[in-house]
Amino acid sequence: MDLSTQYLGLNLKNPIVPSASPMSRTVGSVRLMEDYGASAVVLYSIFEEQIRHETKELYHHLTYNAESYAEATSYFPEAHEYHSGPDEYLNHIRKLKESVSIPVIGSINGVTDGGWVEYAKQIQQAGADALELNIYYIPTDPNMSSDDIEQTYLDIVKDVRNQVTIPVAVKLSPFFTSLSNVAKRLDNIGVNGLVLFNRFYQPDINLDTLSIEPGVVLSSSNSIRLPLRWVGILHKKVKADLAATTGVHTGEDVIKLIMAGANVTMMCSALLRHGPRKIREVLTEVQQWMVEHEYSSINDMRGSMSHQNVADPSSFERANYMKALQSYM
Amino acid sequence: MSTIEREMVNIDGNEAAAYVAHKTNEVIAIYPITPSSNMGEWCDQWSSEGRKNIWGTVPSVTEMQSEGGASGAVHGALQTGSLTTTFTASQGLLLMIPNMFKIAGELTSTVFHVSARSIAAQGLSIFGDHSDVMSTRSTGWAMLCSHNVQEVMDFALISQAATLEARVPFIHFFDGFRTSHEVMKIEELNDSDIEGMMNNEHITLHRLRGLTPNKPVMRGTAQNPDVYFQARETVNPYYDRCPEIVQKTMDKFASIVGRQYHLFDYFGAPDAERIIIIMGSGSESVHEAVEALMEKGEKIGVLKVRLFRPFSLKHFIDAIPATVKAISVLDRTKEPGGAGEPMYQDVITALHEYYTTSEVKFAKYPKVVGGRYGLSSKEFTPAMVKAVFDELSKEKPKNHFTIGINDDLGNTSLEYDPNFTTEKNDVIRSLFFGLGADGTVGANKNSIKIIGEETSFFGQGYFVYDSKKSGSTTVSHLRFGPRQIRSTYLITKANFVACHQWQFLEKFDMLSSIVEGGTFLLNSPFPKERVWANLPMKVQEQIIAKKLNFYVIDGNAVAVKTGMGNRVNTIMQTCFFAISGVLPREQAIEAIKTSIKKTYGKKGEDIVKMNYAAVDGTIENLFKVDYPNELTSTIQLPPVVSAKAPEFVQSVTAKMIAGHGDSIPVSMLPVDGTYPVGTTMWEKRNIASEIPVWDSEWCIQCGKCALVCPHATIRIKVYDNELVKDAPETFKHTLYKGNDYKGQAYTIQIAPEDCTGCGICVEVCPAKNKKETKYKALNMAPQPALRDAERTNWDYFLTLPEADRRTVDVKTIKGSQLLQPLFEFSGACTGCGETPYVKLVSQLFGDRTIVANATGCSSIYGGNLPTTPWTTNNDGRGPAWSNSLFEDNAEFGFGFRLSLDKQTEYARELLIKLLPQLNETLVNEILTCAQSTETEIYDQRERVKHLKAALAPQTSPEAKQLVQLADALVKKSVWIMGGDGWAYDIGFGGLDHVIASGRNVNILVLDTEVYSNTGGQMSKATPRGAVAKFAAGGKPAGKKDLGLIAMSYANTYVAQIAMGANDLQTVKAIIEAEAFDGPSIIIAYSHCIAHGINMRLGMNAQKLAVDSGYWPLYRYNPSLMKEGKNPFQLDSKPPKVKFEEFAYNEIRYKMLTKMDPEKAKRLLREAQEDVQKKWRYYEQLAAMNFSTPQSAVTGH
Fold first, then answer.
1. Could you say which of 3.40.50.300, 3.30.70.20, 3.30.450.40, 1.10.238.10 is the CATH number of the domain covering B686-819?
2. pLDDT at A312
3. Smallest CA–CA distance from B467 into chain A, residue
């Protein structure tokens, strides 16, 4: 049975790739995921915003109230050197490349238009096999048009694409007026993969403290329907590979997404909930299903149920309950 | 001479000394004390970076628990043959004296580098003079004095080489601050120079003298009358040889490096008739004055004393021109009651011996007078030097004079003409007025480096800091010129003045120091078109009169735009270079950018870019102002203090506040260091940009805001509702919520001009505006718009009656905050974590408290002039406060207790004796009444009042005695306060003894987990994994459990508290501690700027410390044991967040993840284990059964 697949020009032994999560923070846990069958790993995101914040925070506190008072012209020892910026992340990539044999995909998460190229180059230099750009932006300014937002995405991706040679994937938000159009324009820039979709922190209200508490809710299998639709729609409409993420908990989830057109399926919530061994379970389920249903290759299965290949493409498009329209001709 | 090129560096004296000390030693034992702390810090930093000495090994640097400890460790290391040194000053040096006698008696080679500082007498001073080193004259140490930063580096090496040959230990000293902190361009000695000076044979001999079991000897015997005396005389040949050895070493130094020094260096006319003999940085001023006066034909000179001990008669006499007729010996110290100051006496002795033993070279025995100058870094200028020379011209010059002050009491002072100047026109003299927070000093240090590196100019930077820790101002004095700068005094004739903060225009008369045609740079919120109209009248007047070139920039706008926040340093620095013309503009900008890269590069590219943006954004916003030739302003400078202030405040304190303290004559100052309390209330500092505004509609009247306020600027009163009739229009009030004062009015009032704007009150306020949750019952709002109205409201609020203490439920937060704080408006940092505890003690017991305060932050914000935060209530009662030393505070407070108890005992004895003449009921009540509640104390005060009235007409000696002592019959509360440096380290021995004594004292440890006052050095309270100075790689060992140690006596009330985590437990613990009839110790978690936190969220940091289990809250009350109960009660819940969550909220932990990620992870893991272990241990303590088993009672 051939579980192998291709993603971002990488030959992977199977379609299960752990997505960016705290699970990849230590070499040990990545190694464990590899042992349980992960075919590649997307590292936790380097948060451009956080790095900037931490750098400025350190600078602020090291200089706060310094040179103000004769007895204490500073409050901290002067460090010989700081591992500021993404140093720790880059070292992690280097160590992983020495410790695991699966491809390592770096990930950058950011909000501004600065820092991307710089970090992308450093990640490439550190030895990452590919790069995932996780651009998120919550447009609260009513004066900002969808064009403005889309252009920001395209500019960032173009900059990075032109500056690195490793494959680049873009993790997208589902909240675009015309996702297909955005995907197409990214595709035209030369993006190697689209990751569908980003799972955002959502706000909640704490009624005791009357404060907003952002948090993330782990997904369930039901969550695959959103990526399923868009993987299906985009399959063969873009040259870029498609990664489906959100809601991958079972072998059936994997198979559905592959059939819709995904090159790989990415797991996060299930791994956080059950640990890395879940990868092996899901892989076993995939294999069993393929045996039972007489499929011999993942590649044969891919896109068999995509928008382009299904008998009734409108089923991908249906947004509300409507009795299926029967053909009258 | 060495062929390797030497680098020119721009460094201060401390760095220069540390540089050589680190290169030429193997063991360094240190302890922080101003102004020498930086020397230890440099060495610790270099060793932690792996920098090696000239022999290729990294010196071992170890912090000790006190200077006594450091000198002991040095003694031990020397005795086992290592090259060893230490650094200290002032009281620290005094603590080393016992070991210094030993080290010298044993003829041991070492150098102690001392940044000489005043000794605490009538008051403490951190500033420079020779009081400390002069106190060590009898120890037998050689004393070599450096007069400027270059000499510090040179003499550090010369003394190190000389001590190894002479076997006499050396104090190498230089003036605290003036030299230790002055930045100068100097030539750095290279390794080849140092190697050339160090004699390996001498080092070998030093090692061979070390103790070793392979060849054991005994050193340190006890000697009897038969031999001690003779043995003491055995060292004489070594002292006889020492001066020649030093001169020989200086000659060798000259042959290698090129600079020739002598034991006594003379500068001046070869045929001088009048000379000044002086030692230290003051000699530079004299040198400058002599040079200028010689040009006018005066026959004068200066003899610079370098080797003060051993005092070489021969070299001294040889150095003085034979033509000299009159000598003035200037000492930078005071020896009250002496025949004269030390150097004066030496000169007199030397001349006398010379006259009695040699062929005399002088035509006539010179007149010799002595004078004092420069105590505590008092200015010493060429104008003063001229006055000294002028005095010497008189037939009978004044002896034992003072110069630089107005001594109208003893009439010792010489008058001088302050307008006399020797400043050369080719020297650029710049003054910068900045806020500590805006980075002005850092930028100026940078400018000195830039100019030093980019030009052949010599530079000098000296920085004057504030005595406050919040909203502090700095004045930078920078000189640049074509030759070595010897002006070791402040700039009074500046050709460039920069004002970095608009509000300073109302506070400082900065343009009085600018010369005609000078340049004035102002950071102005007003555009160039409107700036003139907004200037105070006096400033306009000076600009016109002096025809100044006037430039403005809205530096704050540029700072905000470029992400610099409130740091206008880079912007103002760019302006300076752009208009001062020190360097061509383009070259200057490039140099600033190079320097930014160098300074901030390792902190991250973002910081570099931000500063670059600030530089680039500056020039386009810098404008020259065309101003009219006439005054347009009507803005007058406000009075320094209110006209309502008491006389002393008006005549003395106000001068200090205004920066004119130098003009206060001797007669106006207290003779014994006793100052009035409650004077901070007159110093309206207006440093807050925003202050809290109370919204009574949503307030739940919990009192938390007032409790946490570090500066007692948010107050609460409950009062008769009728009184609001007279209130000012904007005065806010509402009805009291609760039954205890039902129907009364309730007000929370802010002192708008005293608030520092920290925002802690807003952060802890639990009441949200239910319509718009972004608002609370307290919200910050810009101060300027509120200032006038709130000032009126505050004044009115003060007229409202204080709560009757007898009716207040003090055990609640709400109740405790109705009590008047008797500690207010201190100079502590904005958002300080210590002062809320101090203030709470003052509220709960202030009217009967005596405070012994260890030196440190709390003694500085509590007792640093000009103003004092400890104050009184309307009855005139309040805390009496004193600071003895750093190391003896527990004993000092213990002394209070012994004294008060004795007085009480004696008063009771007298009372019994006088019973027949007094009302028996009154006497019995006085003797037997309880004094645990406010009512009981009030009643006892009333009884004592009656007693005094009854005793007044009586004439017996006993009655008269009792009148004096009767107040001792009212309970007094002794509080011993200080930081962790005192309690865990230097004062621990005393603290331990005091709690073991069982006497009734209350110890409050304000635990910031570092030596905060001296800049965050590690103490034994510093936690594992935290970065601190002297623990630059993260502290590897865990924190000492002081509470457990105290509990081991089982006689001490012990509590660990954290106000931000559980305020009620804090109040309870403090009340219980005070009520406990025996020793009590409270260890109070105090967040601090040295933790690297947002101080506004300080209370939140405390909560995280407790929630993580790092700082368990508990109370241990031995009284409970008598009831068969467990004395130990845990007041916090098991850890509910990880230690990491607490730790990585603070830069002190987090910075290690940036410096050494692997080590950070390991220490974090170990610290988490510490937390778990400690919690398990405490849980078991809390679970112990203290009830007496029934079988034990019945015997079954």
1. 3.30.70.20
2. 84
3. A69
Helix or strand run (H / E) with residue B72: helix B67-79
- Could you confirm whether B399 is annotated as catalytic? no
Nearest neighbour of B829 by CB, restricted to A65, A71, A79: A65
- The residue in chain B having the minimum alpha-carbon distance to the alpha carbon of residue A58 is B1147
**B936 belongs to the catalytic site:** no
Residue B1057: strand pairing partners = B1084
Radius of gyration in angstroms for the set of CA atoms belonging to chain A, rounded to a whole number: 22
B590 is an active site residue:
no
Residues of chain A with pLDDT under 50: 329
CB atoms < 10 A from the CB of B782, how many?
13
Closest CA to B1022 of B902, B880, B1152: B1152
Q: Which of B117, B306, B567, B941 is catalytic?
A: B117
Neighbours of B781 (CB within 10 A): 10
Q: Look at strands B1080-1085 and B111-116 and give their pairing.
A: unpaired
Nearest CA in chain A to B51: A80
Total beta-carbon pairs less than 8 A apart between chain A and chain B: 158
How far CA B536 is from CA of A240, B325, B356, B615, B785, in Å, comes to: 68, 53, 67, 29, 19
Question: What count of other Cβ atoms lies within 10 Å of the Cβ of residue B394?
Answer: 11
Separation between Cα atoms, residue B1145 and residue B1100, nearest integer Å: 10
Longest pairwise C-alpha distance within chain A:
93
Backbone dihedral angles phi then psi of residue B273, each to the nearest 5 degrees: -105, -30
Identical fold for domains B8-213+226-257 and B264-414, yes or no, is: yes
Strand partners, A7: A10
Q: Which of B10, B14, B24, B34 is catalytic?
A: B34
pLDDT in tens, B323-375: 999 999 999 999 999 999 999 999 999 999 999 987 888 989 999 999 999 99
* Domain at B8-213+226-257, CATH from 3.30.470.10, 3.30.300.210, 3.30.70.2190, 3.40.50.970: 3.40.50.970
Phi, psi dihedral angles at A58 (to 5 degrees): -60, -45
Domain B1009-1183 CATH (choose: 3.30.70.980, 3.40.50.970, 3.30.830.10, 3.30.365.10): 3.40.50.970
Q: What is the DSSP letter of B968?
A: G
Determine the Cα–Cα distance for residues B903 and B965; give it in Å rounded to an integer: 7
Residue with the two structure tokens 């450096």: B146
CA distance B276 to B266: 10
Indicate the residue of A54, A63, A69 with minimum beta-carbon distance to B466: A69
Q: Which two tokens stand for residue B292?
A: 């200028």
- Beta carbons of A73 and B38 less than 8 Å apart: yes
Cβ-count burial A113-148 (b if 16+ within 10 Å, e if not): eebbbbbbbbbbebbbbbbbbbbbeeeeeeeeeeee
Mutation pick from B1089, B1140, B1165 vs chain A, by most beta carbons of A within 10 Å, is: B1089
pLDDT in tens, B1055-1111: 999 999 999 999 999 999 999 999 999 999 999 999 999 999 999 999 999 999 999
What's the pLDDT at A52? 83
pLDDT tier at B467, thresholds 50, 70, 90 = confident
In CATH terms, is domain B643-676 a member of 4.10.780.10? yes
Question: At a CB cut-off of 8 Å and minimum separation 6, what does B337 contact?
Answer: none
- Tell me how far apart the alpha carbons of residues B155 and B17 are, in angstroms, rounded to a whole number: 8
